[in-house]
Write the structure tokens for this entry.
Amino acid sequence: MLSVNTNIGAMVALQYLNKTSEDLMTTQNRINSGFKVAGPKDNGAVYAIAQNMRGNVAGYAAVADSLNRGVSTVDVGISAGQSISDLLNELKGKALAAADSSLDTASRTALNADFVALRDQITTIVQNATFNGTNLVDGTTANIQALASVDGTKKITVTGQNMKLSGSVVTVKSTSTISTAAKASTMISTINASIQNVNASLAKLASGAKKFEIQNDFVAKLVDTLNAGIGNLVDADMAVESARLQSLQVKQQLGVQALAIANSAPSITLSLFR
């Protein structure tokens, strides 16, 4: 049927052209943004899954920060413990030298002065072994905890160690001296026990630091995996979109021509009246 009032062919051609234009706009948006799912309108279910995964990534970033702070805090404690262990070895050398009963007064006095200076240096190290307000070697911190999960329910704990003078680890007293051969001889065994205790405490701190580092490595790998999963869900394949863009551009041009042909159809009716 030829009608000048209703052009079915033009309406159909216009519908296809509009659909092609919509598809072309979608493809251009994907190329511009790099996402095939940039918002809930693109694919509500996939967008929701991706957002949940992004939330987990953000949560694990906080977990990594907590673990890094824990590692740094323990590292400071370990550095202090190593310095204390070295000082104890020096103290042992001074005590051994002072245990010689044949020493003259001047030599003994000099050794004792060195001993006292080294002894007091232990206190200075302990007092300054603080990171982020936490000191793991002065007995003020029972333990530190770091986050291990995004829901905050799982944590890793490292126990603090008390390496202060006159404590259970460093049994050398804050008033100890080697001013006599007898005191020096007694001090040797005390220092030996302190060295063993400090090394045992260092082993515990090192074990705790290892736990933090292992968990931190796992979190880093997990975040990479999550990011890859998010990319698989929402990232646009540029090779596919490029091919689709060219196809739609050709299709759009053909649609315009088809619409032009359909719009010219009613003019055929003029030939009926000649």
In short: Residues 40 and 48 are 7 Å apart (CA to CA). Residues 44-233 form a domain with the f41 fragment of flagellin, N-terminal domain fold (CATH 1.20.1330.10). The first helix runs from residue 8 to 33. The longest strand covers residues 143-147.
